């Protein structure tokens, strides 16, 4: 009679872990790279627009994401660097870098959402154009690009969460090309054959009797 056991086979568990590691790695790389690219692209687009009163007329003003805040772009670069650095470290170092990646994504989301309703950049431009430091922008409106930057931050946050959860299953950079600290052993010179003619001549040059016992 054959017995069926519910205990999983170690080999199947290892295969499942490897499959999970590969899948999570692919998703994290895609989300991290795409999130950073989206956030950087969004900060270069127009986030808000309005008008300033100049000499009795209206002067149109616009502000890009980089004019409103430089935080999303800076954190996107940090997140991208952390995504690459995940593979250069192990254990506690990998956990720390993964946490930095997640925090970069969360910070990008927060900064983008705060900038979605910001008017200070246009107020500064209105004061500069009108020459009045107390001038404020009128007819203020915002675009959807701050929310696009927030989506990029969410992708970075997802990549960081995957690195925190499955990073231990991911491969690390090989140490084959690292130079070890221990000095390489020197090859000892091969002992010469005393019966060879060149060895006999060398012995004669040294003043030795090659025929002596």
Automatic annotation (TrEMBL):
Record keywords, A-Z: Membrane, Transmembrane, Transmembrane helix
Biased composition of type Basic and acidic residues is found at: 193-213
In its keyword annotation, does this UniProt entry include Membrane?
A: yes
Entry-linked InterPro entries: Trp_biosyn_TM_oprn/chp (IPR019051), Trp_synth-assoc_CHP (IPR011746)
Low complexity composition bias: which ranges? 182-192
Outline the segment boundaries, as ranges, of region: Disordered: 178-213
The membrane-spanning stretches of this chain are 21-42, 68-88, 95-116, 144-164
Name this protein carries in UniProt: TIGR02234 family membrane protein
Q: What is the lineage of its organism?
A: Bacteria, Bacillati, Actinomycetota, Actinomycetes, Kitasatosporales
């Amino acid at each position: 009679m054959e017995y069926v056991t519910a205990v999983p086979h170690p080999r199947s568990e290892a295969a499942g872990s490897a499959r999970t590691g590969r899948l999570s790695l692919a998703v994290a790389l895609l989300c991290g790279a795409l999130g950073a690219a989206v956030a950087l692209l969004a900060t270069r687009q127009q986030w808000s627009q309005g008008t300033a009163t100049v000499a009795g007329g209206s002067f149109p003003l616009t502000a890009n994401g980089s004019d409103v805040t430089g935080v999303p772009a800076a954190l996107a670069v940090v997140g991208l660097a952390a995504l690459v650095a995940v593979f250069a470290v192990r254990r506690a170092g990998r956990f720390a870098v993964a946490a930095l990646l997640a925090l970069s994504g969360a910070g990008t989301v927060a900064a983008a959402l705060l900038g979605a309703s910001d008017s200070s950049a246009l107020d500064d431009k209105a004061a500069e154009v009108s020459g009045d430091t107390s001038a404020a922008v009128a007819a203020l409106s915002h675009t959807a690009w701050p929310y696009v930057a927030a989506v990029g931050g969410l992708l970075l946050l997802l990549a960081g969460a995957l690195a925190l959860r499955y990073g231990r299953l991911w491969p690390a950079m090989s140490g084959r090309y690292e130079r070890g600290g221990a000095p390489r052993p020197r090859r000892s010179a091969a002992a010469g054959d005393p019966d060879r003619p060149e060895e006999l001549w060398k012995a004669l040059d040294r003043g030795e009797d090659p025929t002596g016992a």
